[in-house]
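# step 3/5: fold
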Amino acid sequence: MANYSIANTTAAGAGQAQQNLTSTYKTLVAVAASTLGGATVGSQLRRGKIYDILIGTNGTPADNVLEFDVIRATIGATVTVAGSISSVSSNYLIDTADTGFVAYALINSSNEGNITAVSGEPWYEGLNQRATYRWVANPGSELVYPAVSSATGGNGLALRARSPGYTGTATRNILFQEQ
């Protein structure tokens, strides 16, 4: 079981620019079971668990409300349907002795129409723009995405943000494990 860390950093590279927030949700980071991931580990699907979330903003300080959530989602049939895609490689490993992950990751989506909520919102947090926040799961209480293909639906978790007043960018970092 390898552990990974993925952020929607400003240094993500060309085509992966952070999206400005609006009153509708923007996906900052998503992970999903897929056989299209960056590591060549065969075609087996693996489930994953998000166990740590860090959120905040990198804009000019002001007093605005921001809403962050995690949804269970179907994240398209290929790694390009949701807009900007991160490269998936061993760069995200916390312990570089492990192998790269089988799933795929997406950061700073520019095409929300291809990220479909399938059931509820297992995590939500509203906070002031000036605040940063960290959530760490108790053991056994992680946010889990199943080892299913995108064709069967609900293959991932999308971590999103919105604000009725703040129009800058938000930051998010997740730590997750693939099993």
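# step 4/5: annotate
The longest strand covers residues 48-57.
# step 5/5: archive (pending)
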